[in-house]
Structures are given as C-alpha cells and as structure tokens.
Amino acid sequence: MPRLRGGYPAHPKLHFMLMPERDHNPRDRRLHLPLVPVQQGRAGTAVDVQGERKPPWLKVRLRTGPNATDLKDIMRGLDLHTVCEEAMCPNIHECWEDREATFLILGDRCTRRCGFCDVMTAKPFPVDPSEPARIAEAAARMGLRHVVITGVARDDLPDGGAATWAETIRLVRRSMPGAGIEVLPSDFKGGERDIATVLDAGPDVFAHNLETVRRLHGRIRPAFGYDRSLDVLRLAKRLHPEQVTKSNLIAGMGERVQELTSAMRDLVVAGCDILTIGQYLQPTPQHLPVDRWVHPDEFAALARRGEEMGLAHVEAGPLVRSSYHAGSQFRRALERGLVAAGD
C-alpha cells in the first residue's frame, strides 16, 4: 500500500508528465456545460473544435530542460501540488524552465465548481499540517525570488483554511526573507476575520480573482459572487491600506468587450492595483466552450485602457494567467510608483 503523508497518497515512482492526463470529473460531478449561451464563432460554427487549428498566437513552443526537471523532482520529492499542473496551464514549460512555479495549498480537491477551471471538484482530504513547511523548503531549494501561492476553496473548514494560508506565508518569509510573496486565496465566503488572518501574515501581493463579468458571473462561478469578490479586494485595502492587490479576468467565455471594460472599472473602484487578462481555453468537453479567440491587439487595447483607468499594471495577452511573470508584474508596478513597497 502506498505510503501516506499527512493523509495524502504518496506519489508513485513513475516518470511524471508535466501535463498529466487525469479524471477531474469523478462520477460526473462537474456540471455539463455550456452554462451560458455563447456565439460559437462565425457562421454558427464552434470556435474550439478538436482537430481544427487554433490561431497562431496560441501556439506554445515546448521548452524542456534541466530547470524544469529539477523543479519537477523537488515538487515530487516533497509531495506538493502546483496549480501549473492541476489547472493545465499553457505556460508550464516556460515558467518551470525559468524556475517559476505556483504552489497549490490545502490539497488538490476543491469544494467549488467553476465552469472554466480544471482543478478537481471533490471531497477534500484532511488538512496536512506539514504542508506549509514543505512549501517553504521547496521555495528555498528552488531559489525563487517571487513565491506565488494559490489554493483550492475549502468550504469544509470553519476558517476556510485561513490559518494554513497564514502559516505558509510566515514559514516562506522565514526561509526566504528577501523573496516576494504573492497569495491567491478563495473568498472565505466573505469572512472578514479569515481574510484578515491571511493579510496579517504579511504577503507582498494579495490577489483575488474576479474572473468574469457581472452578467456571466453567477452562471460561470456559481459558488462565488461578483460583488463579494470585489468586496474581498476592497476589504484588503481597508484593513491594510498599503497592501498591493491583484485580480484576473478571463476573455472568451461569452462576455462583450464593453463588459470587460466595466469589470476593469469596478476593480479600480475596489482598489485593485494589478490586473491580468488572458484567453479562455477549454480544459475538457465538460467545461464551458470557447466563445471566441481574442486577438492580441484587443488584449493590448485592454491593457492600455486599464492603465488609463488607474491600474498600476495590466498584463494582458492570449496566454497570460494570474501568476504568469508575477514577480515582474509586481516590480513594474513598484517602478511606476503607483503602489508602495511593503514594510
């Protein structure tokens, strides 16, 4: 029987693929989509059809090398998860070769179900109390300059996992005093005390993703709320006025361009400093279909518009994800003088 570490099955001694195939729809738990009407491309045809070519700007050049192998070995050796793998990020090869990775804490099973996300929806395992220390060890061994930590929603826990978030931040800070720390937690059901627990641990960047526009939010993110997500960012600024905040929007899920602009304006009003915007890619046929391929020029226009509105930095592009080049995003925002460096 495989060895267990903190309730999690040990990883088998196999050659591990960076983009493993796995069943993230156990017992058909994921909703069958589309959840929202989409345009389905020109002339009524589906945009993302198996066997048909995607636009050239979505082609990813495979980058493999010693750094990616080293990171993989460290993660497997410490029995850790990354959102790079669990969410099937298209930038995984590039980021891992550049020694960048986003840790996924509180397990790899989420208690919520979003129409675009490939993280498994299932009953979570018990919290592993050794996980924060292992993440701090992994970050130090990788020599990261900017540590990004995200996590699954844990609505089964009284504090939503806030104590684990705070402990992870503290231990990473202790092991790597000079590194930036960026966290991307759930909304803790809007619980002010739990959000404060995470903020009081002192992350450099506190991120919470809005993901989609108001009209689609309730259908695509049924367990979240558009205004509640904005309130999380607003609360972070109220509790810690110098806290750098960040969010993400996904394009190509059925929204209109003017709705993206409205969402950016709402984020500015909520006090958001940094924003990322990327193209939606359908993980499986059970997920929301792609509504349209957004041209790089449109992403560039959105970035300009967002910074004109007052966002310190907008990273927008077809393959941009929330943690993509996160350290450089933070540094550029600091250089522009629109956000203050933390203590």
Name a few traits of the molecule.
single chain, 343 residues, alpha/beta, TIM Barrel, eight-stranded mixed sheet, two-stranded antiparallel ribbon, 13% strand, globular
The second-level CATH architecture is: Alpha-Beta Barrel
Q: How many runs of DSSP E, i.e. beta strands?
A: 12
The chain-level mean pLDDT equals 79
Number of domains: 1
Oligomer: single chain
Number of helices: 11
Largest sheet: 8 strands, mixed
Strand order of the largest sheet: 3-4-7-8-9-10-11-12
- Give the proportion of residues in helices: 25-40%
Give unreliable regions as ranges.
1-35, 40-45, 83-88
Coarse morphology: globular
Query: Could you say what the CATH topology is called?
Result: TIM Barrel
CATH class: Alpha Beta
Gap from first CA to last CA = 48 Å
Topology as a string of helices (H) and strands (E): EEHEHHEEEHEHEHEHHEHEHEH
Radius of gyration: 19 Å
Q: Which class of secondary structure composition applies to the elements?
A: alpha/beta
CATH superfamily: Aldolase class I
Our estimate of the beta-strand percent is 5-15%
Describe this structure in words.
This protein has 343 residues and is an alpha/beta fold. It has one domain: Aldolase class I (TIM Barrel, Alpha-Beta Barrel), CATH 3.20.20. 34% of the residues lie in helices and 13% in strands. It has 11 helices and 12 strands. Strands 3-4-7-8-9-10-11-12 form an 8-stranded mixed β-sheet, with helices on both faces. Strands 1-2 form a two-stranded antiparallel ribbon. The chain has a two-stranded parallel sheet with strand order 5-6. α10 links the parallel β11 and β12. α4 runs parallel beside α5, α5 packs parallel to α6 and α6 crosses α8. The radius of gyration is 19 Å and the shape is globular. The termini are far apart. The N terminus is likely disordered.
